[in-house]
Specification:
- The complex is a heterodimer of chains A (113) and B (112).
- Chain A has no helices and eleven strands.
- Chain A is mainly β and 113 residues long.
- In chain A, strands 2, 4, 5, 6, 9, 10 and 11 form a seven-stranded mixed β-sheet that branches. Chain A has a four-stranded antiparallel β-sheet with strand order 1-3-8-7, with no helix packed on it.
- In chain A, strand 4 and strand 5 form a beta hairpin.
- Chain A is globular, with a radius of gyration of 13 Å.
- Helix content of chain B is 0%, strand content 56%.
- The chains are: A mainly beta (113), B mainly beta (112).
Chain lengths: 113, 112
Protein backbone atom coordinates (compact mmCIF):
# COMPACT_ATOMS: atom_id res chain seq x y z
CA UNK A 1 0.00 0.00 0.00
CA UNK A 2 1.94 3.00 -1.32
CA UNK A 3 -0.63 5.72 -0.41
CA UNK A 4 -0.26 8.85 -2.56
CA UNK A 5 2.62 8.73 -5.06
CA UNK A 6 3.89 11.84 -6.82
CA UNK A 7 6.41 12.00 -9.66
CA UNK A 8 8.83 13.56 -10.30
CA UNK A 9 10.32 14.66 -6.97
CA UNK A 10 12.24 17.53 -8.57
CA UNK A 11 11.86 19.33 -11.88
CA UNK A 12 13.47 22.35 -13.52
CA UNK A 13 11.68 24.00 -16.43
CA UNK A 14 12.39 26.95 -18.66
CA UNK A 15 9.77 29.67 -19.01
CA UNK A 16 7.18 28.64 -21.59
CA UNK A 17 7.74 24.89 -21.32
CA UNK A 18 4.88 22.58 -20.44
CA UNK A 19 4.89 19.52 -18.23
CA UNK A 20 2.66 17.18 -16.25
CA UNK A 21 3.00 16.37 -12.58
CA UNK A 22 1.78 12.87 -11.88
CA UNK A 23 -0.27 11.79 -8.87
CA UNK A 24 -1.61 8.31 -8.15
CA UNK A 25 -3.28 6.82 -5.08
CA UNK A 26 -4.04 3.19 -4.28
CA UNK A 27 -6.50 3.74 -1.42
CA UNK A 28 -9.64 3.91 -3.60
CA UNK A 29 -10.16 7.52 -2.54
CA UNK A 30 -12.86 9.45 -4.36
CA UNK A 31 -11.51 12.90 -3.48
CA UNK A 32 -8.19 14.15 -4.87
CA UNK A 33 -6.64 17.60 -4.90
CA UNK A 34 -3.55 19.61 -5.78
CA UNK A 35 -1.98 22.25 -3.54
CA UNK A 36 1.00 24.51 -3.98
CA UNK A 37 3.13 25.55 -1.04
CA UNK A 38 5.02 28.83 -1.02
CA UNK A 39 6.93 30.34 1.94
CA UNK A 40 4.65 32.26 4.28
CA UNK A 41 1.52 31.42 2.29
CA UNK A 42 0.59 27.99 3.54
CA UNK A 43 -1.00 25.48 1.21
CA UNK A 44 -3.20 26.90 -1.54
CA UNK A 45 -5.69 24.75 -3.42
CA UNK A 46 -5.19 24.65 -7.19
CA UNK A 47 -7.79 22.11 -8.40
CA UNK A 48 -9.75 19.29 -6.88
CA UNK A 49 -11.88 16.32 -7.93
CA UNK A 50 -14.71 14.58 -6.07
CA UNK A 51 -14.64 11.55 -8.36
CA UNK A 52 -13.67 10.24 -11.78
CA UNK A 53 -14.79 12.62 -14.51
CA UNK A 54 -15.43 15.52 -12.12
CA UNK A 55 -12.98 18.38 -11.53
CA UNK A 56 -13.31 21.91 -10.20
CA UNK A 57 -11.17 24.96 -9.49
CA UNK A 58 -9.61 25.87 -6.19
CA UNK A 59 -8.12 29.17 -5.01
CA UNK A 60 -5.31 29.51 -7.56
CA UNK A 61 -6.24 27.60 -10.77
CA UNK A 62 -4.79 29.92 -13.43
CA UNK A 63 -2.05 28.34 -15.52
CA UNK A 64 -2.95 24.79 -14.52
CA UNK A 65 -5.17 22.07 -15.98
CA UNK A 66 -6.35 18.79 -14.49
CA UNK A 67 -8.30 15.74 -15.58
CA UNK A 68 -9.62 12.70 -13.71
CA UNK A 69 -10.18 9.79 -16.07
CA UNK A 70 -9.71 7.14 -13.37
CA UNK A 71 -10.22 7.00 -9.60
CA UNK A 72 -6.48 6.40 -9.07
CA UNK A 73 -4.85 9.17 -11.13
CA UNK A 74 -5.07 12.95 -10.99
CA UNK A 75 -2.36 14.61 -13.14
CA UNK A 76 -1.65 18.35 -13.00
CA UNK A 77 -0.60 20.04 -16.24
CA UNK A 78 1.33 23.27 -16.51
CA UNK A 79 0.48 24.70 -19.91
CA UNK A 80 3.21 27.34 -20.26
CA UNK A 81 5.46 27.51 -17.21
CA UNK A 82 6.18 30.87 -15.60
CA UNK A 83 8.67 31.78 -12.81
CA UNK A 84 5.65 32.50 -10.56
CA UNK A 85 4.88 28.79 -10.69
CA UNK A 86 8.11 27.94 -8.88
CA UNK A 87 6.81 26.13 -5.82
CA UNK A 88 6.41 22.82 -4.04
CA UNK A 89 3.35 20.95 -5.28
CA UNK A 90 1.45 18.46 -3.14
CA UNK A 91 -1.19 16.04 -4.26
CA UNK A 92 -3.63 14.88 -1.57
CA UNK A 93 -6.51 12.42 -1.44
CA UNK A 94 -9.33 11.45 0.88
CA UNK A 95 -12.08 8.84 0.96
CA UNK A 96 -14.50 11.72 1.43
CA UNK A 97 -13.43 15.18 2.50
CA UNK A 98 -16.53 15.47 4.64
CA UNK A 99 -15.67 12.40 6.73
CA UNK A 100 -11.98 11.55 6.50
CA UNK A 101 -8.67 13.42 6.47
CA UNK A 102 -6.46 14.37 3.54
CA UNK A 103 -3.45 12.13 2.86
CA UNK A 104 -0.59 13.98 1.18
CA UNK A 105 2.01 12.76 -1.26
CA UNK A 106 5.70 13.57 -0.77
CA UNK A 107 5.60 16.61 -3.03
CA UNK A 108 7.24 17.82 -6.24
CA UNK A 109 9.69 20.72 -6.07
CA UNK A 110 9.38 22.71 -9.30
CA UNK A 111 11.73 25.48 -10.38
CA UNK A 112 10.95 27.61 -13.42
CA UNK A 113 13.84 29.70 -14.76
CA UNK B 1 -14.98 32.02 0.00
CA UNK B 2 -13.46 30.66 3.18
CA UNK B 3 -10.51 32.52 4.69
CA UNK B 4 -8.36 31.12 7.49
CA UNK B 5 -5.96 33.27 9.51
CA UNK B 6 -3.34 31.70 11.75
CA UNK B 7 -1.27 33.22 14.57
CA UNK B 8 1.50 33.44 15.50
CA UNK B 9 3.66 32.92 12.43
CA UNK B 10 6.59 31.77 14.61
CA UNK B 11 6.63 30.48 18.18
CA UNK B 12 9.62 29.57 20.33
CA UNK B 13 9.15 27.71 23.62
CA UNK B 14 11.37 25.97 26.12
CA UNK B 15 11.18 22.20 26.26
CA UNK B 16 8.45 21.20 28.70
CA UNK B 17 6.43 24.40 28.23
CA UNK B 18 3.06 24.58 26.48
CA UNK B 19 2.45 25.98 23.02
CA UNK B 20 -0.79 27.46 21.69
CA UNK B 21 -1.57 28.26 18.05
CA UNK B 22 -4.79 30.07 17.13
CA UNK B 23 -6.82 30.21 13.94
CA UNK B 24 -9.88 32.14 12.87
CA UNK B 25 -12.15 31.32 9.94
CA UNK B 26 -14.69 33.32 7.99
CA UNK B 27 -17.33 30.85 6.75
CA UNK B 28 -19.89 30.18 9.46
CA UNK B 29 -20.93 27.00 7.57
CA UNK B 30 -17.50 25.38 8.10
CA UNK B 31 -17.80 22.19 10.13
CA UNK B 32 -14.42 20.43 9.90
CA UNK B 33 -11.16 21.77 11.36
CA UNK B 34 -8.00 19.67 11.01
CA UNK B 35 -4.46 20.42 12.11
CA UNK B 36 -1.41 19.26 10.15
CA UNK B 37 2.24 19.01 11.15
CA UNK B 38 4.96 19.35 8.54
CA UNK B 39 8.56 18.52 9.38
CA UNK B 40 11.32 20.05 7.30
CA UNK B 41 11.33 18.62 3.77
CA UNK B 42 8.42 16.28 4.50
CA UNK B 43 4.74 16.16 3.62
CA UNK B 44 2.02 17.55 5.90
CA UNK B 45 0.50 14.91 8.18
CA UNK B 46 -2.72 15.10 10.17
CA UNK B 47 -2.20 15.28 13.94
CA UNK B 48 -5.72 16.00 15.17
CA UNK B 49 -9.06 17.21 13.86
CA UNK B 50 -12.36 18.40 15.27
CA UNK B 51 -15.88 18.70 13.94
CA UNK B 52 -18.37 21.42 14.72
CA UNK B 53 -20.51 19.28 17.02
CA UNK B 54 -17.61 19.00 19.49
CA UNK B 55 -16.04 21.79 21.55
CA UNK B 56 -12.79 20.08 22.49
CA UNK B 57 -10.79 17.02 21.53
CA UNK B 58 -7.67 15.63 23.14
CA UNK B 59 -5.05 13.10 22.08
CA UNK B 60 -2.26 12.63 24.63
CA UNK B 61 -0.27 15.92 24.67
CA UNK B 62 -2.30 17.53 21.89
CA UNK B 63 -5.70 19.16 22.20
CA UNK B 64 -7.87 21.28 19.94
CA UNK B 65 -10.65 23.63 21.07
CA UNK B 66 -13.37 25.12 18.90
CA UNK B 67 -15.50 28.21 19.49
CA UNK B 68 -18.11 28.30 16.74
CA UNK B 69 -19.68 31.52 17.94
CA UNK B 70 -16.41 33.40 17.68
CA UNK B 71 -15.28 31.36 14.66
CA UNK B 72 -11.92 30.40 16.05
CA UNK B 73 -10.11 27.22 17.00
CA UNK B 74 -6.82 26.55 18.72
CA UNK B 75 -4.15 23.87 18.99
CA UNK B 76 -2.63 23.22 22.41
CA UNK B 77 0.55 21.21 22.84
CA UNK B 78 1.59 20.44 26.43
CA UNK B 79 4.98 19.29 27.71
CA UNK B 80 6.65 20.20 24.43
CA UNK B 81 9.57 18.14 23.20
CA UNK B 82 12.28 18.90 20.61
CA UNK B 83 10.55 16.55 18.15
CA UNK B 84 7.50 18.84 18.24
CA UNK B 85 9.57 21.40 16.28
CA UNK B 86 7.87 21.72 12.89
CA UNK B 87 5.46 23.87 10.90
CA UNK B 88 1.83 23.53 11.98
CA UNK B 89 -1.10 24.31 9.70
CA UNK B 90 -4.74 24.75 10.63
CA UNK B 91 -7.48 24.33 8.04
CA UNK B 92 -11.22 24.66 7.63
CA UNK B 93 -13.59 23.32 5.00
CA UNK B 94 -15.81 25.53 2.87
CA UNK B 95 -19.60 25.62 3.06
CA UNK B 96 -19.96 22.86 0.46
CA UNK B 97 -17.41 20.62 2.11
CA UNK B 98 -15.37 20.23 -1.10
CA UNK B 99 -12.43 22.47 -0.29
CA UNK B 100 -10.01 22.54 2.61
CA UNK B 101 -8.54 26.01 3.12
CA UNK B 102 -5.29 26.26 5.08
CA UNK B 103 -3.82 28.92 7.29
CA UNK B 104 -0.37 30.32 6.49
CA UNK B 105 1.34 28.11 9.07
CA UNK B 106 3.19 28.50 12.38
CA UNK B 107 6.86 27.60 12.78
CA UNK B 108 7.22 26.05 16.23
CA UNK B 109 10.71 25.81 17.72
CA UNK B 110 11.18 23.87 20.94
CA UNK B 111 14.46 24.77 22.61
CA UNK B 112 16.14 22.17 24.79
Amino acid sequence: NAGVTQTPKFQVLKTGQSMTLQCAQDMNHEYMSWYRQDPGMGLRLIHYSVGAGITDQGEVPNGYNVSRSTTEDFPLRLLSAAPSQTSVYFCASSYSLAYSPLHFGNGTRLTVT
Amino acid sequence: GENVEQHPSTLSVQEGDSAVIKCTYSDSASNYFPWYKQELGKRPQLIIDIRSNVGEKKDQRIAVTLNKTAKHFSLHITETQPEDSAVYFCAANDQYGNKLVFGAGTILRVKS
